[in-house]
Amino acid sequence: MKYKYLRISAMGVLLALCFYSCIQEGIISKVNNESDLVVLELEGITFSFAFPGQDSHVVDTRSLQDNPEWAIDQLWLYEFDVNGILIAAPVNIREESTFFSTGVEASYTYKKKWDYGEQRRFFFVANMDAIAVTVGTTTLAELKAKSDAMQEMATASTDILYSKKTNIGGPDIPVTDDNDWRIPMTGMANNGNIISIIGGINVQVQLVRSVARIDVINRLPGFKITKLELFNSFKASYLHNDWKTPNYLDATNRLATSVASFAEIGADGVTGAREGVPIKKAFYLYEGANVGANDDDITYVKITADYVSKTDEEYIIPFKQKNAGTGKFDTPVDVKRNHLYTIIIGSAYPTGTTNVKATLVNEPWTVFNMWEKFSFYNVKSHSGADALTEIAYNIVELTVPAGGGAVSIEFDTDYLKTNNIEVSQAVPASDDWLTNVQITPSGTKDFTVTFNVAANTGAVRNTLFKVKESSLSNDDDALTISVKQNGN
Hints:
With 488 residues, the chain is mainly beta. The protein folds into three domains: 4-209, no CATH class; 212-374, Immunoglobulin-like (Sandwich), CATH 2.60.40; 378-485, Immunoglobulin-like (Sandwich), CATH 2.60.40.10. The protein contains two helices and 34 strands. The strands form eight sheets. Strands 1, 3, 4, 5, 6, 7, 9, 12, 13 and 14 form a ten-stranded antiparallel sheet that branches. The protein has a five-stranded mixed sheet with strand order 18-15-23-24-25, with no helix packed on it. Strand 24 and strand 25 (370-374) form a beta hairpin. It starts with 14 loop residues before the first strand and ends with a strand.
């Protein structure tokens, strides 16, 4: 069986399953009129499965999926009528004797007496145990919304994964580099549309992983990660969701305590290098809404690291992206199932500065990229300047009018431990036209820098000063405020 059609979905975590109806000639009895009952006596629907991740030509290497991330120990089939009512007990087709697999492709024939033209919906759940349902009562909508069927996140990514099953019926399917954990997945046949049982049926299903994944790439030489923690993650999710337009559980679903990393800290990539060896599978997590949440509630990763003279310094990377209107990195990002979020410490490329910065790359395995980077200091608002530009992650450049006046810039410190900000490099004494630099904290994350500029009767002039969070010992982590004053 060829599966070139998997090129798009195989680039990521989406597991594409193609279903074909193989109905032999001669099985359908003669139809005298449209009201006659026609029974398919022997054959049902043959489901043919193609597993992505094994063909190097169709797998996007950036998605970094591996055998354990598509491995299936259980695959439950739930059958519903046209009204979405469960009509049969779930069947674990992975353990059926007719389940056949080569490790690259597989098939299973679902045998049943079908009325010609019968209409059905099929729903699949992988790697979870059978879910408590009632034939004739449970609806498809109820099953998909079963958040209580999901294992609850508490302290570690493994809380939401499933242990490898032993003594599995059916064929032996090799899983290389097996870590003994399985990811829950769900999928609807034919995108949830009704399927009529007639000859020549061709139905496709995509199994979507129920979790998201975070990788960390350290491209900052000498930056040694000692600890990774996930905060404000989500305790549970719905069993099935449309990952393009999802519905999330309410705000009470957010976990108050930290989650330990899935990857071992001793893995390659802990000490930074320009080539940026990734810490794969730093975390697995459930989906959830950050848009509309308070800043203190937004999901974030805390990286503890040793860097230059700093020991056990903490760096906070919240799920935020660049605001297209303002250019500020202050827009919350929802966590979505089936997405890979890559945090890159240092430059996004193998060359760059030695400053501590990060790029958060969001990769659903349909290869959509959402680039964002974080700065220690983010401008929220300003007044008294003709223009303000954040020309680097830790440099702000202002242009002030020749007439001078009072200037105010409001910042936040989402990526630092406190907003205890101090002047680390004063305005040069020779530039006495810029005076009275003041720093005023606000709340727990914001601070405002104010200063006065004298009127300029001559040519354009420039100066600068630096501020930084008081616990930072390296001047590379300071914020440079560069001021240009127009002349007359």
